[in-house]
Predict the structure.
Amino acid sequence: MDANKKGLAKANEIYNSRGAYAREVKKQGKRVFGYFCCYPPIELLSALDIVPVRILGDMDEPITLADNCLPPVMCIFCRSAFDIGMKGQYDYFDGFVGAHACDGAERTSFIWSNYIKSPCNFHLDIPHTTHNSAVDFFKEQIEYFKAELEKSAGEEIKPEALRKAISDHNHQRALVRQLYELRKPDPPLLTGTEMLKILIAIMGMSVAEGNLLLTEVIGEVKTRENVQEKKRRLMIWGSLIDNAVFTELIESSGLNIVIEDTAIGTRPFWHDIVETEDPLQGVAEHYLKEVLCPRTFRDSGSNYAQDSDSRFGYLRDFAKYWKVDGVFANIIRNCDVHGYEAPVVKDYLTDLGLPVIMIEQDYSTTSLASLRTRFQAFAETIGS
Amino acid sequence: MEKEAVKTLKSAKTLNTAREAGYFGKKMLMGAIKAQEEGRMIGWSMVTWWQGDFIAKALGIHLVYPENYGAFCASVRKAEPYLELADSEGFPNTLCGYARNCLGFAKSLKDNDYVIPEGAPGGGLAKPAVMIASGTACDARYKWFQSLGRYLDDVPVWTLELPQPGVKEYFLEGNKEKNVQFVVKELREFVSFLENLTQKKMDYDKLSEMLDQAFKTLRLAHEVDLLRKAVPSPMVSQDFWSVMLPHLYLPDDPEAYAFYQRVYEEVKHKVDNKIGAIPNEKYRVMFSELPPWHSVGFFDELAQRFGIAMVIESWNYHAPTPMPEEEIGGISDPLEIIARLTYHKGREHNHVAREFDTSPGYFNAAYLQWAQDYRADGLIAHPLMSCRPATYTLMETRNRLEEKLKVPGVIVPGDIVDLRVFNIDEGFSKVEAFIETMDHYRELRKQAGMAW
């Protein structure tokens, strides 16, 4: 890694070589843990100076080894993540944190633990609702997670260390939101592709290093002019995108991505953890109630319209403040939680006057080319 | 044209009592129609492994089960129009077949001003006053009911919580009890929710009586499972998939108990007289997951062609092993008894999972236990194209059985509802080839000095 690189160049470099970066971090004596999805509270890892690395798949890599353990009908992202795990791409993990985020993540977590051994494994069970007792239960499970981490690290997580980690991660969330602010102008000062690379980069760094990078990027981006031409402004909702080839294809099809309600987008960063007297209370409340993945069932409204407005009102706000012209509902094939939600979200956004293009895709760069025409046609449609 | 070319097969079943079990399906569907005519409250419920059923019923709600309705529509080959309707509504065709069947049906119900359309299979499902979703087993079982809001505009949904810890986490000190107490708290909230909806107070004595009856039925259903360990197998999967309905949906119904007494007697008679369910049992095979409901006769053919007896199957749908006395003894709160029953069902094989270093008991551990108990020669794994979460761990199950117990598996993909994705001839070819594999592993087990 080039130590002289800063800001966007550094983010790009880390995005392109997450494994190499993580191995360098390990050489410096730090421990590295992998985690699935948005739900494991990484503040606990940071409190022990463990670097949390978000597990991603690889749209460029054909799935081979996973075929013996995970069936083809499964979420392709999960299969891909497990496949590259089996191929040793995450062999630097000192620990693995699985999560019952959705069926795919849960089953993959179990199978990952069984086949790809790490010195420390923990499976975090996550309730499906936001009921008060569910928050209490989730907090108990986080306490078990904390205890297992402490056992593995051979040291206790001190309350002040946890508070500092929460504060540092809240600062990171605030910095990410600042980046989103820089996408409000037309044209945005930051492309969707750049944003994706930055977010993936910080999801493989210590919180301190990540915050430093974000600060550099913000300083750099603020001074930029004419980064891209004006195009139709697109919001992405749905399954995650973790490969810049995909966003580049969209942004070269007449669209500027201005905001992403996805797991590598607003979802992990939009709300701060409230700093409560018992820090884990705030952690539990935040992860269960404020990470807005459709995997969580939220009681809301007494009829369809109220329920939709309660659950998706934030999309209306995103559309308004980021001056969105259209929405791409992205569903990785076999992603059930987004699949059930898609027609409902489409109803809601269409009623707001927002055109929606819904695409189920196969999480493979080789199958992306065929989507270009659809995005181009969508850009022309919403431009008329 | 393509649809006409698809072969479907019904099973003849081997037990007389299995042939009677359809009565309970009709009883459930007709009961809902009658309840609607009488103005009683109707609830649509997921299979909740008894977590929500007794509570809702004790408050006078008549429950129907859209998952079961999906299986029924598939078995009479009436699911396709509903599947196509759901597709046209924008739901991905990769979603659960039961769900797509239900979403299509609900759309047709809404389009007919909530009067059940004429010709709906089995008399259709009446519009519910409440939907009881479940977080257990798969995401579809709460996302599906949530998305039904498109068609059942003002019908409230309650999602029942049931923890799903990993094996290691299950055994962490105190965690199991925390899990159970969470379920108890949730059930209290559920009772309040239903009391508010029905404007009735829960009759806990009545609830306890229902539980007593249900425990008797479940115990008897489990004893039937134990009888099935006999060689030759007195009862096969084709029978189980019929007789499972009363214990899964109606264990509190005295008629279900009486039925299981007859099932028990019939199976016991066969065991006592060494009468096999199939005439020439050569191979004892387990089956995982749900069957292709439209083609259960496939297994009759396997028996005829290859001497395959399907000795045990579909773990999720069996009555649980009895709870240890130290877990249930002295507890009088019916909500806690329900919580413990349902929680136990999902985790009854976690000790096996720990022993074999594999995924939690609700995935493949049951099969590792059963392979030994039922002296299995093989596993037919049935990945379900539209019930995918049930499928995710099938390959691990196959792998673990081979690695740990020298019991091989074969993958025969299909679907619970959509007969278009089940290639029956390919299934026969795969099983034919699998015969040699089972012979080979039988020899390996013999060489290893294993018990079967």
Q: What stands out?
A: The beta strands of chain A are 31-35, 50-54, 95-99, 120-124, 232-238, 255-261, 326-332, 356-361. The mean pLDDT of chain A is 96.
